[in-house]
Amino acid sequence: MPTDWLADLSRSFRRHRGGRAGWFLQVHRDKLRVKSSDLPPRPGESGSPAARSVTMRTPPGPATVKDALEEACEIFDGVMAGTWAWPVADAMEEEEGRVTRAMVEKLAERLRHQLVGERMAETTWQRTWGPYLAALADVAGRENGPPEVILASYLKGWGPNSRARQMAHDRARTLWKLAGLPWPSIILALRGNGRAAADPAGVRSFSDDEINLLRERIQASRQLTNSDLLCWDLLTVFGLRPVELQGLELRQEGGALVAVVTRAKVSSRGRSGPRSVPAVPPEGWPADCHQLLKRWKQHGVPESMLKARSPGQALTQQLRRMRMSSDLTAYGLRHAYALRVGVELGLHVREAAALMGHSPQVHLTQYGRRLDHPSLIAKVAGAVERRAV
């Protein structure tokens, strides 16, 4: 009979237990599992079910009887000795019917140990991973339901088609991969496409009027200094990332004012090296960019900015204190620089991308809507006019 191997396995397992009753071997959904009321509660479990089941690593079948017996005996001996613990993957098995806070927190801690120190700093984890996984644990603790229910409720906490929801989805999926579990297919649709929610006008950049207004407010502020104003002017005329203020060098090369960026950027797409960037001030600025080189030598970048882990966050907080528009960030000056060299100077995408320290593909992704929109409108208007003639 096809199940003779299971009967033989059960008899051998019974002999190992020395007569201890209440233990069973079963085939469930093409997996072999041990069932017993002696198994300890799962992490975060409340109540006392009559019996619990643990899924075995060994697949069912006559060819694996020896390995299955060894694994079943190891589980029994560990439970009797009080040393056995639920495997993380098994604790989150979908067939068990629910995901608990303890399961999520245990996985998150394992993931933190894998990433922190190898791929990121502890502060980066706390800022970019911790809040998402803590939110997932909160949902699991509140609802304590099946994986699909927990994940759907968790993802709906972020706006549809938002970048935040994409990040929430991808971080939760990383946990499932760590546990060796399949990702529920019905959850994929909830991830959405962040670009679908992007502003049709493209990136939000500073206008020339907003740049001049910001300078006026910094100069009138009692809290900000000449060094703070220097930082903002450097971002404006060189299109820097805020973190590139660290390790920056400024010099005059011929008739051009040039910033030498030494701070490398590391991402999943690769590593950007040092680059030289010529000054491209907003329209109406003097050629020396308000004596920028002289102010650089006199004041320099503030020590607090040189040591900050996130200069962009510190600068954006200054924007809030200056009561600038709430949708402006420090990166808005980098966006303004990109549009200045692309629209006003007419540089090729490849040339503009090289100045900004990224690839042409990234440049088009970020600024394509703003760069192409004026010519597209003019092209359509011209075609409509010609048709009417």
Which residue ranges are poorly predicted, with pLDDT under 50 across at least 5 consecutive positions?
A: none
What is the number of E strands? 8
| Strand order, sheet with most strands | 1-2-3
Q: Which structural class should the secondary elements be placed in?
A: mainly alpha
- What is the general shape? elongated
Helical run tally = 17
Radius of gyration: 30 Å
How much β-strand is present in the residues? 5-15%
**How would a crystallographer describe the biggest sheet?**
3 strands, antiparallel
State the domain count. Answer: 3
Q: What is the first-to-last residue Cα distance?
A: 87 Å
Average pLDDT: 84
Give the topology string: H per helix, E per strand. HEEEHHHHHHHHHHEEEEEHHHHHH
Fraction in helix: 40-55%
Structural summary, described in words:
The termini are far apart. The longest helix is centred in the C-terminal third of the chain and has 29 residues, at 360-388. This protein has helices at residues 4-17, 65-81, 88-91, 101-115, 122-128, 130-143, 147-155, 163-178, 185-191, 208-220, 226-238, 292-298, 303-307, 311-321, 331-344, 349-356, 360-388; strands at residues 23-28, 31-36, 52-55, 249-253, 256-261, 265-267, 270-272, 275-278. The chain folds into three domains: 4-86, no CATH class; 95-197; 208-331, no CATH class. The protein contains 17 helices and eight strands. Helix 11 runs parallel beside helix 15 (331-344). The strands form three sheets. It has a three-stranded antiparallel beta sheet, with helices on one face. It is mainly alpha-helical. A hairpin with a 2-residue loop joins strand 6 (265-267) and strand 7.
